[in-house]
Amino acid sequence: MKNNQILTILLLFVGLMPLNAAKVKTVEDGGSGPYKAVMKDEPTLPEHTIFAPKNLKPFGPQKKLPVLVWGNGACANSPWEHKNFLNEIASYGYIVLATGIMPENDDPYRGPMSRSEQQIESIDWIIAQNSDPKSPYYNKIDVEKICLSGMSCGGLQTLFNCADKRIASLMICNSGLFNQQNAGSAVPNMPMPKKDKLKEIHTPIIYILGGKEDIAYENGMDDFHRIKHVPAYAANLPVGHGGTYRQTHGGEFSVAARAWLDWQLKGDTAAARMFQGDRPRLTQREGWTVETNDAARKAWVRNPIVQTIYSTDPAPMVYGDRMYVYTGHDEARADFFWMYDWHVYSSADMVNWTDHGTPLSLGSFTWADDRAWAPQCVERDGKFYFYVPAHSNLSGGMAIGVAVSDSPTGPFRDAIGKPLFDNGSWDNIDPTVMVDNDGQAWIFWGNPNIYYARLNRDMISFDGEVKIVNQTEEGFGSPSPRERKRDVKYKDFYTEGPWIMRAPTANKQYYLVYAAGGIPEHISYSSAPSPEGPWTYRGEIMPQENTGSFTNHCGVATLKGHNYFFYHTGKLPGGGGYGRSVAVEEFNYNADGSFPIIHHTEEGVKPIGTLDPYTRQEAETMAWSEGVHTDQYASGQGTLTVYVSDINNGDYILVREVDFGNVGGDLKFTASAASALQGGRIEVRLDSPIATPVATLVVPATGGWEQWKTVSTSVSAVTGKHDVYFTFAGNKGAKLFNLDWWQFSK
């Protein structure tokens, strides 16, 4: 009787249990992330395994779960091999939908193969769950942030499904499409898309491979090198085809994968640095290497700061809350330093630079006929003095001239109608000027000798004679040029491009920073208690590196508490030793006020401000551009109007750190453009040049290249801070229009 009662109770209990109850397991104590995860199956999604945070309460409309859709290696219909890896990712705030039945233990899966369609089933299911009020995932899923991914065969399944427009990113692990010559090594029934499938990829993609020991290495790297149209990355760790998935918390592969997902699906800029830059942070972990294609490089390269021309010999000047940079200009396709004018750029945030055009040229000086070389501009008593070297038609040598303006952007005029200094020597190049704290102004110049003089208060005449610095081994690493011995290897030696400045120390010290070492040049410096010396050699600042330019020229300035080192490289397409471009790095002085070693980068500097889209912005204000140039015309009272020109199909302008605020609601986008012919379109995209446009503005023919017309269009609701890409479209091969300014309005 007692046994029958127990059986009855058990049957009743079983009858109360829900049919097809989901099985739930904990893997590795829920992972190392802040959201302890569980592995479970789901009756409404058969032949799939879910990894997700156990507690879903932290997630909702304001904090949604991005999605990773995963295909397994060996076409296994179970993520038995990857559960540590996938569970670890879920513990950092992701929902992971893996192909195949939930593994019961660590034994290898021995059942039927998975299908590529299962990844699509995952996407369909999670989108439906997000819209279903009865689902525990209701309104908790970011269905616009889906990464499609897989390992080995799962990677091939991912590439088979790559054209699905609902995915935002691709992650291919230990995999790659087979070439015809090695297709015979494929597993039967494995997906076998041809290499043309790569053309259907529409999102950023990363290949995470096991190095040359990985049997998929050649296929994966071949894919990577073929992909040109979207950003592509290849990260390799020499562990072979098996990766590190079964290691504790997924090992190193989970580190790389999570960084990719944090960047692509959560917009984490720190995670982006794991893959971006001259020295990706992932490569600082033992064994890792990272490669990027040109499309990926464009996403992070911000140096040089000017792309519309070859700009040279930067001379920074802080005035008000802006950094101004005065530059020379290398002509395109030059075979020497053919330079005829000077340019000015400025920025309040150090990433968006406004082109102020050409306020001074050789034509501004009746005595100059060639070689508009390295300048510098300084302010005094509300006027701006622009010191330049140029070839003199009076003496036949190089001379130092000075121009003046009431504005830091000009236009400038010859201040004295003749050279400030002209003795027929070719030494007279690269002037640098400093107004000391006591009001005394100093000017230095010269190659290979160093000349200096005091300037009068008027800044256009000398107070006393011009002197030559006595170069010594103690002062500059070598004696003066005439005293150097050919068979002696000196520590260093002054070459050209001096920059005179006060040292950032409590004691009264001065630094003379200069190009050194001959060709190719590096940057070194010396210090002294007075501008007249005695000088002490302090060492290198920027070593000679692969900058693409055999010369270098620097300037140093501080804006809003940030220290900046300007220099030039030959890094722009078509650039080189005679096609140089201005770049900048941020740095901190050492504790004793000395310079640290500063390396050149293609990343440039971080922003120190934001840009207001609700005020009129000049089109020639940009953080990066592709294909466009700028032009100018006199617009009355000697002022210049600068605009973006030579716009063709496929060109773009990037403006960074655009802060739309949190007002919400639809916006209007307005721009002033001109087109003599057929016009074109401005497509406004956020955070990526291949993102879906939030607005498209049609520019009509206006009757002339400087016949401006204001046109507007509506914009999908935009909030928060974004990088804004203005991509240009129209008839291929033809100049479309010019662009003067733009503005958003609420």
Characterise the protein shown here:
By secondary structure, the protein is mostly beta strands. 12% of the residues lie in helices and 34% in strands. It has 9 helices and 43 strands. A 10-stranded mixed sheet has the order 1-2-3-5-4-6-7-8-9-10, sandwiched between helices. Strands 11, 12, 13, 14, 15 and 33 form a 6-stranded antiparallel sheet that branches. Strands 16, 17, 18, 19 and 20 form a 5-stranded antiparallel sheet that branches. A hairpin with a 7-residue loop joins β27 (522-528) and β28. α2 (83-90) runs parallel beside α6 (251-266). The chain is elongated and about 95 Å long. The model is unreliable at 6-19 (pLDDT under 50).
Overall body shape? elongated
Q: How many β-strand stretches? A: 43
Structural class: mainly beta
What's the mean pLDDT score?
93
| Number of H/I helices | 9
Q: Residue share in helices? A: 10-25%
Cross-sheet strand order for the largest sheet = 1-2-3-5-4-6-7-8-9-10
Tell me the fraction of residues in β-strands, as a range: 25-35%
Biggest sheet record? 10 strands, mixed
End-to-end span in angstroms? Answer: 80 Å
Low-confidence stretches: 6-19
Instruction: Kindly provide the radius of gyration, computed on alpha-carbon positions and rounded to a whole number of angstroms.
Output: 31 Å
